[in-house]
Amino acid sequence: MRIIINGIYGKMGRMILETAAGFDDLVVVCGFDKPKDVSISTHGPEPLGFKGSPVPVFGSPDGYDGTADVIIDFSHYSAVPGLLGYAASRGIPVVICTTALEDKARAAMAAASDRIAVFNSANMSLGVNVMKNLVSAAAPVFEDSFNVEIIEKHHNSKLDSPSGTALLLADAISDSCSEPRNYVYGRHGREDSIKLTDLGIHSVRGGTLPGEHTVIFAGSDEVLEITHRVFSRRVFAFGALKAAEFVVRKPAGLYSMDDLIAENGE
């Protein structure tokens, strides 16, 4: 499987490159990113393109006219619409792992999915997506008598807040309830009472924390907490590669981790 990595100089781009190098049936043919002098540790080929990269790297997708089976994107939300346009024009399936997507990017995904297979998930971890199913099942049971809070923790370089995964979990909870939840982002300056329909979302940033999400269902004299912790970004790299393997076999359309899990369940 020939892979293009969009955002190859980022932490996750480099992790995908290193992880893919350990598989005989995967090859990263190139990357897209802004020129940088970075160190990428891998067992892949000798450096080509910009200094510090073991594969050719192009400043924009238009610079590459070679072949590929799939594109994996871990970049910035502003780069997603342009990448999708390139992928659709070339007929290359794409896995969008970038978070904090705006309406423009989501519209571009919908448009591209008419021509190619597009996979999108706010979190590429299998564990997180199983957790999403767990909180979806729990929310209707507790909605009349339990408060719900989400706490997410990440490294100090993470730009978006709250995390895409926190919003993924919040949406799963809200969609499962008979009445939509009201998202409350922190409570500084708030003096009104907490309602059962409120869903608190709180962000912690520090050090090299790779990622932790906890959903708290707090009732009278009892609390249920569901927590997912990640100890290495390699989890997300494996998930992205699994998604790439899934999407290259699919016709045009929009796919998610739910589709991948359902297929594996069968």
Concise synopsis of the structure shown:
With 266 residues, the protein is α/β, with parallel strands linked by helices. Helices cover 32% and strands 23% of the residues. It has helices at residues 11-20, 80-90, 103-112, 126-142, 164-176, 234-247, 257-265, and strands at residues 2-6, 27-32, 57-58, 70-73, 94-96, 117-120, 147-154, 182-185, 198-205, 212-218, 223-229, 253-255.
What topology does this entry show?
Layout: E1 2-6, H1 11-20, E2 27-32, E3 57-58, E4 70-73, H2 80-90, E5 94-96, H3 103-112, E6 117-120, H4 126-142, E7 147-154, H5 164-176, E8 182-185, E9 198-205, E10 212-218, E11 223-229, H6 234-247, E12 253-255, H7 257-265
Parallel strand pairs: 1-2, 1-4, 2-3, 4-5, 5-6, 6-12, 7-9, 8-9
Antiparallel strand pairs: 7-10, 10-11
Helix pairs in contact: 1-6, 2-3, 4-5
- Topology as a string of helices (H) and strands (E): EHEEEHEHEHEHEEEEHEH
Report the CATH topology name of the largest domain: Rossmann fold
- The low-confidence parts are 41-50
Main CATH class of the largest domain: Alpha Beta
CATH 2nd-level architecture of the largest domain = 3-Layer(aba) Sandwich
Beta content:
15-25%
The CATH superfamily of the largest domain bears the name NAD(P)-binding Rossmann-like Domain
- How would you sum up the major sheet? 7 strands, parallel
Q: CA-to-CA gap between the ends?
A: 24 Å
| Overall structural domain count | 2
Total helix count?
A: 7
Radius of gyration: 20 Å
- Helix percent band: 25-40%
Structural class: alpha/beta
Coarse morphology: elongated
Find the count of extended strands (DSSP E, 2+ residues).
12
Average pLDDT value? 90
Query: What strand line-up does the widest sheet have?
Result: 3-2-1-4-5-6-12
